[in-house]
Amino acid sequence: MTRLLIVGPQGSGKGTQGVRIAEAFGIPTISTGDVFRAAVAEGSELGSQVKAIIESGDLVSDELTSAVVRERLSQDDAERGFLLDGYPRNVTQVMHLEEFLEGRGDELDAVIELSVPRDESIARLSLRAQEQGRTDDTEEVIANRLAIYERETAPILGVYGARGIVVKIDGVGSLDDITARIISALEARGLNRSAAA
Ligand code: ADP
To answer: Do the Cβ atoms of 128 and 137 come closer than 8 Å?
Structure first.
């Protein structure tokens, strides 16, 4: 049972690394950004509730986001652990998650902080905008998302840091090197991927 959270600014590569780490540990990745984008693409009710918000780079309400995550965490495959990507994204969501996990006698094992200098993350995001054409990757929206990260998301690292569960990883390097760094840092904390797989 491995319960992980990956945190990093937009463009830090957390989505890519999150998927790789979850695979290595044999646990599902739960990405709120992916859930919301899929809902928009499907045109579901959730999609219509969040479309305008994600396109402007603002945050979906804490109540709605936490409800979506609780439902996802209640599915069978998340019983043996999970990797959260993009949630919790502020201190209120940290409290919502905690309340939910405590209710089932669980807690996070580690929080992976992927650290990347601001210039590097802006450069990567502009590249992704050209390659993938994500509607929330325009220059103005990117600046908004990074500002929200600094103001609302970075403080959650203080909360988890005080509990001693933050594993800080240098996010500059090749994808494989960074994956290896994360895996060895988690193993050094006694989180074993072979035990989970
Ligand atoms: P990025 O981290 O690159 O901004 P994500 O894929 O994590 O992108 O999220 C895309 C958008 O989905 C966010 O800008 C926000 O509007 C919404 N979103 C994702 N996760 C959350 C969350 N935990 N709380 C509120 N809104 C969220």
So the answer is: yes
